[in-house]
Automatic annotation (TrEMBL):
Pfam families: AHSA1 (PF08327)
Protein known as: SRPBCC family protein
Coiled coil: none
Family, similarity comment: Belongs to the AHA1 family.
Residue stretches making up the Activator of Hsp90 ATPase homologue 1/2-like C-terminal domain: 37-147
SUPFAM superfamilies, A to Z: Bet v1-like
């Protein structure tokens, strides 16, 4: 993947921030919207079939039905709250151990068929965020990871498996994550947030996802 490809992948995503009431409280939201050149049924299947999910996102286990639970390997877990094929999936999102009720976020995946046979995918992640954490990292702490997921889905729908654990150790991933962090900084600034705080949060997020001393082989 060259520089132009990376820039194109970043620019293909619309990013915005908002607020939303969820059971855990008043949550901050990050929203990503992207167009895929694939039928809505195919995109839905890629997002919900365990055998396909592991090829571009993460292995998933659990009681994968409405009201059941899921576990993404090494990542989040939760409950399946709403499933309306092939348009809407809503789940709780819990990351880490020793969690409380305020740690339970929600993720919605919404699919809309386009007029030309393409699919518009939206991912909305809502969570009650500790103010200190938000001031330090801003929306990129969550958004950069989802950008990587949407990139993996793009590659998968083009017929290429995407191993994120391998990808993250490449110079291309470092560049992608840097541009993603900057894009989330721009989305943050668009809300009217203080420019100095936005810049500081963007730097912290970039350092986390693309550390300066990282030397990919």
């Amino acid at each position: 993947m060259n520089e132009n490809d990376i820039v194109d992948r970043i620019n293909a995503v619309h990013r915005e921030l908002g607020r939303k009431r969820i059971p855990a409280g008043e949550g901050a939201t990050v929203l990503l919207r992207r167009r895929y050149d694939a039928a809505v049924e195919d995109v839905w299947d890629a997002c919900t079939d365990p055998q396909r999910l592991r090829r571009w996102f993460l292995p998933v286990t659990g009681d994968l039905r409405l009201g059941g639970t899921y576990q993404l390997e090494g990542n989040a877990r939760g409950e399946i709250l709403h499933c309306e094929p092939p348009r809407l999936l809503r789940v709780t999102w819990v990351y880490g151990e020793n969690t409380t009720a305020k740690d339970v976020g929600e993720v919605q995946v919404r699919l809309t068929p386009g007029e030309g046979g393409e699919t518009i995918l939206e991912v909305e992640h809502a969570a009650v965020v500790d103010p200190e954490f938000w001031d330090r990292y801003g929306p990129g702490a969550t958004g950069v990871g989802w950008d990587g997921g949407l990139l993996g889905l793009h590659e998968h729908l083009r017929g290429h498996d995407f191993d994120e654990s391998t990808w993250q150790h490449t110079p291309e991933a470092k560049r992608f994550n840097t541009l993603s962090s900057e894009a989330w900084g721009a989305a943050h600034a668009a809300t009217g947030a203080d420019p100095e705080r936005v810049a500081a949060a963007t730097r912290a997020t970039t350092e986390f996802y693309a550390p300066a001393d990282d030397d990919p082989q």
